[in-house]
Amino acid sequence: MASDTDTAKPDPKTEPRRRRPPRAPSLFSWLPGSRLGRLIILLNVLGLAIIISGSLLLNELRRGLVGARIDSLTTQGELIVNVINRAATVGEPTPELDAQAASEILQMLSNPRSQRARLFDAKGNLVADSYWVADRVEWKVLPPARPRADEGLALDLKIGRPPPPLAPAAQRALMLEVGRALSGAHVAGMRRTEDGDRVVSVSIPIQHVQAVLGVLTLEASGVDEIIRRERQALAPFILIAIFVSLTSSILLNNLIAQPVRMLARAADRVRLSRARAISLPQLAHRDDEIGDLTVSLEDMTQSLSERMDAIERFAADVAHEIKNPLTSLRSAVETLELVKDPAARERLMAILKNDIQRLDRLVTDISNASRLDAELSREDLRAVDLGRLMGEVVQLYQDTAKPGEAQVTLSAPETLEPIMVSGREGPLGQLLRNLVDNARSFSPPDGEVRVKLERGRGEAVITVEDDGPGVPPDNLETIFERFYTSRPKGTAFGGNSGLGLSIARQVAEAQGGSIRAENRTEADGVVLGARFIVHLPEARR
Question: Can you state the angle between helices 289-336 and 35-87, rounded to 10 degrees?
């Protein structure tokens, strides 16, 4: 929200950029992915785990109840079968089942009302049913009254005609179970009755020695009631899972969607130029990826703001520096028309040429400085053999040296492993050339510019020394500012643009290093020259 977004321009001098402290390991840090990713996974899996655990728990309960019911029916059925086998089998040597006696036994060993016992002969014919002997009538709620064309069916029911046959599917399931039991196997399981109800059924063969005389089938109803209770017991797990899912959705919305929306609106304000930087401290303090993203965006927009300020200052400095030679040119041109003395005209022409050279050099250096930013941002860092690069640069100066110019020498350690730095070869070469050019411009004609390469602790150290007048102590830092020039008396004015050392510092810092200046002195404090020291981090192997 716009009201939650503070887009005030940060002051880099008074408000340093935040850096994320290392996070302490969390309880779920062993999970793969990011912090928010682990949170999303855990919240989504939690609701699913609740439903699965509830289902598994109730399934175990259901299997236990059904197993207990089967054991109970099996024990009861084996008792009835043993009694029928001893008291209701007749005939020698071929035994047969006495249906009347078996029915009486079934009546004596009456079953609970929730159970049903049926007796089949060796051919699979129903000979006894506990509903018959107990005078129990199957009933169910009738559907609404039908048109008059169906009144005959209602009349048949009133006069006591037999009910319609069992449902075909239920009849087939029952006969399949009886057929398996007639083969001598004990059959136990669940099936549906003609009314569509699920029952636990046990079919036990009645055997006399090896002959199967019939089958006793015991059915226990109430399974639907068990399932209904299971569903009721599962309802709390479902409600808890729904609550967890809703809670996780709300948390994800508050933790991710809303902060991302705030970042998007803050970025829009920057894009529409109503702000120079993003500042969302309430999000930057978060210890997760959203906090990292906020800090990264703040740093990025702050860097862009600083870059824009630097460009504005650079443009103002360029305008000022170009204006000086142009003013001198205009003054010389206006005066040239009025001067008749050939010697004076020659002096004015020398001034014009000098100003033109100065302007050309200034434009060239400004162009190089402008291209440097783009070059540093486009090229990727790679390992550069600094000793080889410095040798090529120094060799070029030695090959192109003119009489009266300071000589350039190189001192590098002789090691088996080259000194490699992580950087860009083009800007690094420009850094070396700028330092050498600056040292040569201050050195006397018979002087020497010494370039030295050393290996430090995890870094490469470049030293450039000259035999010039040195640097005033108050200017050891200001000489790296753009367009700053400080020349000893007698030096030609306008011979330098003041951008060389500024570009050298820019390149060193872009490569992750640093540069500083100091004076070479004797024991008594006499200045022998200037020394520029560059530190560059070594490339990782």
Answer: 160
Beta carbons within 8 Å of 445's beta carbon, 6+ residues apart: 404, 405, 406
The proportion of the chain whose per-residue pLDDT surpasses 90, expressed as a percent, equals 4
CA angle, residues 203, 209, 211, in degrees to nearest 5: 60
What CATH number was assigned to the domain covering residues 301-376? 1.10.287.130
Q: Token pair for residue 179?
A: 């057929």
Task: Tell me which residue of 35, 205, 46, 61 sits closest to 119, measured CA to CA.
Answer: 205
DSSP string, 388-452: HHHHHHHHHHHHT--TTSPEEEEE----SS--EEEE-HHHHHHHHHHHHHHHHHHS-TT-EEEEE
Per-residue CA distances from 362 to 314, 366, 507 (Å): 13, 6, 19
Q: What values do phi and psi take at 424, rounded to 5?
A: -125, 130
Q: What residues contact residue 41 under an 8 Å CB cut-off, 6+ apart?
A: 31, 33
Q: Are strands 211-220 and 198-208 parallel, antiparallel or unpaired?
A: antiparallel
Mean pLDDT across the chain: 76
511 with 422: CB under 8 angstroms?
A: yes
CA angle 138, 141, 145 (to 5 degrees): 125
Name the phi and psi angles at 44, rounded to 5.
-75, -35
CA dist 361 and 494 (Å) reads 9
**Where do the structural domains in the chain lie, given as residue ranges?**
301-376, 379-541
Interatomic CA distance for residues 453 and 536, integer angstroms: 11
Tokens encoding 335: 């005066």
CATH top-level class for 379-541? alpha beta
Q: For residue 161, give Cα distances in angstroms to 131, 133, 148, 165.
A: 17, 19, 19, 12
Helix axes 35-87, 223-252, angle to 10 degrees: 180
Higher pLDDT, 201 or 16: 201
Q: How many CB atoms lie within 10 A of CB 254?
A: 10
Strands 407-411, 448-455: pairing kind: parallel
* DSSP symbol at 112: P
pTM of the model: 0.48
User: Are 127 and 214 in contact, with CB atoms under 8 Å apart?
Assistant: yes
Tokens representing residue 512 in the block = 């992750």
Let me know: does 280 contact 258? Beta carbons within 8 Å.
Answer: no
* Structure confidence by residue, pLDDT tens digits, 219-261: 887 766 776 777 777 778 777 877 877 787 778 778 787 888 8
Q: What angle do CA 285, 291, 292 make, to 5 degrees?
A: 125
User: From CA 77, how far away is CA 57, in angstroms rounded?
Assistant: 30
Q: Give the distance between the most distant pair of CA atoms in the chain.
A: 163
What gap in Å lies between CA 229 and CA 235, rounded to an integer? 10
Q: 496 falls in which pLDDT band (50, 70, 90)?
A: low
